[in-house]
Amino acid sequence: MPNETKRDRLRQLGALNTRPEAVRAPWFRESSFFDPLDLVQVKYEMLRHVHENGVNKADAAALFGLSRPTYYQAEAAFEREGIAGLLPRTRGPKSAHKLTEEVMQLIEQNQHAGAPLQARSLAQLLHSTLGLSVHPRSIERAIARKKNGEPYARAPVLPQGCKDFYETLRAAVLCGQACVKDMGATGKGWRC
């Protein structure tokens, strides 16, 4: 989208804070670098506030308009994965969990070379032999993934220095040494 706004992009990524008005941290009102719409930044700043300033976790969660359980989830995710852990995750199953390696072998054994894919009959076969209910479209996708050698979805990976980059940019903005607009932190958002 040529006229895509940061809000649109955050919404697409699932990182749009639906309650930006609940963020009461003063620096989110004092500088355009801090964006209460950016849920990843809000969570990071909440964690940072506790770590750097020794603030009570419940108080920090309230200051950033989030719940205590959200604080603890963000803390665990950040410890496990860094800033990437604060990014939104897709909900639901992460892979074709019913189509294990053994099930895929049964499917491959019953596929006829050169013949068109009969996903509906393969689904019936899986139901009658294994008692497994699988939608024909799931079988088609699994076969296509295996044929193309595509891996299952993975968690997003950010560059190693992402946190350091953010901290450097943050310090420069707060000290008045950098203009947020000049550093690319507006519009579509800063990237690392």
Note down, in words, how this protein is organized.
The chain has about 190 residues and is mostly helical. It is about 50% helix and about 0% strand. α3 packs antiparallel against α4, α3 packs across α5 and α7 packs across α8. It is elongated, with a radius of gyration of 23 Å. Mean pLDDT is about 80; it is low at about 180-190.
Looking at this protein, list some descriptive labels:
single chain, mainly alpha, elongated, disordered C terminus
Give a concise summary:
This protein is mainly alpha-helical. Helices cover 49% and strands 0% of the residues.
Write the layout of secondary structure elements.
Blueprint: H1 6-13, H2 27-30, H3 39-53, H4 57-63, H5 68-81, H6 101-109, H7 119-130, H8 136-148, H9 162-174
Helix pairs in contact: 3-4, 3-5, 7-8
The helix content, as a percent range, equals 40-55%
- Name the average pLDDT: 82
Describe the main β-sheet briefly: none
Low-confidence stretches: 182-192
Distance between the termini: 21 Å
Q: How many beta-strand segments? A: 0
Question: Which geometry do the CA atoms define?
Answer: elongated
Question: Helical region count?
Answer: 9
Radius of gyration from CA coordinates: 23 Å
Q: What is the ordering of alpha helices and beta strands?
A: HHHHHHHHH
Which class of secondary structure composition applies to the elements?
Answer: mainly alpha
Percent strand: under 5%
